[in-house]
Amino acid sequence: MGMTTPPRTLAEALRARDDESLAGLLRARPDLLTPVPGDITQLATRAGTRASVVRALEHLDRFALQTAEALAVAPDPAPYETLLGLLTGDGRDDGEHRGDADAAIGDALPAALTTLREQALVWGEEDRLRLVRTARELLAPSPQHPSPTGLGPTVAEATAGMSPGRLQDILATAGLPATHDPVSAVTSLSALFTDRARMGELLDTAPAEALSVLDRLVWGPPYGEVTPNPTPPVKWLRDRGLLLPVSTRTVVLPREAALHLRAGRAHRVPEPQPPAVEAVANRDPQAVDSAAAGQAFLAVNTVEELLKSWNGGGPAILRAGGLSVRELKKTATALDVSEPVAAFWVELTYAAGLLASDGEADERYAPTPAYDDWAELPAQDRWVHLAVAWLAATRTPGLIGGQDAKGRALSTLGPDLDRSAAPEVRHRVLALLAALQPGTAPDPETVLARLRWERPLRGASASAGDTTDLRSRIALWTLNESELLGITGRGALAAHTRALLGTGPAEAAALLAPLIPEPLDHVLLQADLTAVAPGPLERPLADMLSALADIESKGGATVYRFTPGSVRRALDAGQSAADLHAFLAAHSRTPVPQPLSYLIDDVARRHGHLRIGAASSYVRCDDEAVLNEILADRRSATLRLRRLAPTALAAQIDPASLLDGLREMGYAPAAESAEGDVLITRAGARRTPPRTAPVPVPEGPPVPDTTLLGAAVRAIRAGDTAATVVRKDPADAPAAPSGSLPRTTSAETLATVQAAAMTGSALWIGYVNADGAASQRVIAPVRVEGGFVTAYDHTADEVRTYPLHRITGVAELADEATS
Fold first, then answer.
1. Which residue from 207, 205, 210, 190 is spatially nearest to 260, judged by alpha carbons?
2. What is the pTM of this model?
3. pLDDT at 811 exceeding the cut of 70
């Protein structure tokens, strides 16, 4: 769709685009699709709304944004050469490297303009470039919102409302001819400030102190406060219009004068090229992959250990949601990590759908049923599951410990931790690492500088090293979390992560599998009642050993310690002494030490010697001396015991509490049923109802797929045809208001539709659907029967059937519209 004349509006410029270009606009600005615009005019109107323009500006890179800022202070419309001059300057300050910088700007400017055009922020021919009005209002200077360029208002804007007498005084002091026309006076003063030679002569006569005042204002902010009796340098500048009054106490440096002092440049430091990501170290790629694989395996084990510790029901949920500080400290101690790292693992487990609230009245956290399926997967597949969840999660653990907008503390698993920018920042950081050579560890500061160039903060200085903005903090957290999770190794991106980002999870798991150590089926028993696992253990062995012994230390090898309490725990779970001896003999590469055998036999001999039942509860024992010892112990006072018989005691607390109380006193009781049989109290695995992983909070509308884009473009084109088509009304019909529905009688409608079906011509109709919504459509009738018309609807780009009674009227299209 070509145009023979330059576009006069943004709608005309969009109408001249081809379908691929319109689809590119909708892809770059998906908010324009909700709902699908009815025609090109609606699309242009929506593209110029403040919220949409702000969102589009925030997604520009630094140089594209600088180009838009330069257009905001340029004349409207501006030729390409004027825009280029605002970015490169007028050549008066050429230094040793200025020529190369200007050449880089000249090379990058066409691409920046293309980006602005594609996003419908700039339109017009090269000699008449226009920034959309809303973007100009956002980026142009004002006292309330200074321009990002640091430039002030023009002379015409600053002198609006100034008395003619004051203008005459300024002209006279500046040596300009007097004029009684305010417009001519403003034009004369503007011409002085834009004339290089005359402006140079004027500044040559300025006092040194006045030039110092200009130096402080030239790069912004251009506003300054003055006293009722200004100093001589300020008075000299004010009398010659180099400082113009904004209020009784405020003056401003006009834009034309500032541009002369800046040698014509809108920005102090244009940045046409993104900063490079620099390396701090180049490591052996194999060492990087090995380190990352080891950390990936540790990550999987840490998550599994966390879920095992909450297997019978985790900590209670705070009333406001989330985990208490005390419970986070307990979790950190159990995992042997710092609290921020523990918070990361808890949040990652939650994001992966392995942990959730149980939904009970006494609400607690517990593993989900998905955990059991996850635990059965090979280690590499478990890691891929965690990594994919981390990449997509919008929950941001780095915020934990801070405060929300209302000053409330942000807690682990609590609300208000979602940040929609997190997935995009994580992917971008990893993409920057992937662009480096394998084994290259980047300098974090250069990564942050690159991200700030790609998505700068509007109004922030290009050279500011501010890392306090959210995106920069997320980027730093990403680098730290990547190392914890095994995404990177020794600071460099691992090969399995490159595969995860490129070819997908299956390839990543295949690359990681050979680097993960094979699980072992044995341990080394020591004479000091410890067992050493020289590597990861097979799952059944690890589960049984964790019930029989306590973990004393972790690392490359895990040390387990056998204690009376740990052995009793295994006996409580239903194991017999013979079972424990057979288990140790089968899985130890060293002989079972005699002290360990004695420990098992000794605990087993005393296990179940006391019997607990329900009276509320009772204790029975064949050895009266044991019961006498319990009653004599001061610690039993809280159990509220009394003797029923020489071999039985009754208690007024429940059996479970009585069991716990006697175990704390050092005894090894066993629970029994009403029939007198010993009850095996296995550790109950508590699971939540089926829960899905938390859904990430999207950053704005989702990017539409190709099918939706194609359908949207067709609908917009068809709606535009219906809205702009030329129709012919009957000669005696009154002129219909623009945009109104056609009105014809039922008989006229039927006759016109039948005639169009016979001749194959198109019609313009008004239609009201079942919901009462009215629309205009262009249709080509195919068949008319039974009170319905079947036609090809150009608006919907498909064949549809319409009830005739819902058609408000019809009109034939003008000959030039159908030709």
1. 190
2. 0.76
3. yes
